[in-house]
Amino acid sequence: MSGTLQQLQSQLNGINRQLLHLLNEQERTAAEIVRIKEEQGISEADPIGVQQMVSELISHNQGPIANDTIMNFFKEIFHAYQKKQNNAKTEQKLLVSRRHKSEDTIIRVKQAEFGGVSPVMIAGPCSIESRDQLLTVAAALKNAGVTVLRGGAFKPRTSPYDFQGLGVEGLKIMKEVADELGMVTISEIMSPSQIDTAARYIDIFQIGARNMQNFDLLKAVGQSGQPVLLKRGLSATLEEFILAAEYILYKGNDRVMLTERGIRTFEKWTRNTLDISAVPLLKQETHLPVLVDVSHSAGRKDILLSCAKAALAAGADGIMVEVHPNPQAALSDANQQINIDEFHTFWQGLCDSGLF
Ligand SMILES: [Mn+2]
Fold first, then answer.
1. Which of 57, 66, 182, 248 is deepest in the core (most CB within 10 A)?
2. Which fold has domain 3-93?
3. The whole model's pTM is what?
């Protein structure tokens, strides 16, 4: 490089450093304006008046930079700054956020403790099909040391012609079986009108993936005060997921467990793609217990143990798995449910791993 070029280059570096210094000064000054306005109780969508500032600036522009370029550059900077401010404010305000509550939320339901020292196993059939079916599987699970029994009575099925569940009859069966064995129960509800009835029979309401953004349902379970297991929607971002949970907390119920159950991707070898990174991220960003449903994530039996180990290693507070006495004959999710023997192997594998 010639002497002149070298000199120009270092001159440019010097200008850039000055600009950098000034840009930081600019952000600090803007922050001070926002702070003072907030102190005075002035709440404006655009407290620093971006449009006006940029117009004023352009009136002084003597080139060679075009006015449009100046305008875009400054608008970009101020908008990025405002976005940062707004995000910080929303995060602070969210009831689900760790910034709002730093310690873990522990949810106690009878003898079960979600979000505490030990992980929890939730197991049971996809659908409650009969008293016999549920009792057979529940008794085996109870013997193995499982305390929380799952089973669907109101089934959100992709096709209206598929088995829709036994409804209230199913919940009655579940209560009978659980009372007999001393287990905690969890079952899905799909509409606010089912809450009062369901509350008589089950301990924990599940809101399924397809209803994650059913806002009336979220608000209604929020008002009910009953513990809620909220599943992540098939295509929901983590932000949408925690905002859905926020609806429940905002209505006064903080007994909410978040459940990752796989998201929809291009991959076809699994029913959904288990998003393991969701576990540490949800633990980091919220104070709620985080569980992983390995059955619906994988949609196949052969990798359940590995998926469950990964979930626990990532910090999950519990695992949900579908177990059926005779999966081939199951009325729903036949391919992904494991039988009782397979459950024993699965459970043993988890205990041997030292993660459970
Ligand atoms: Mn299922």
1. 248
2. Chorismate Mutase Domain, subunit A (1.20.59)
3. 0.79
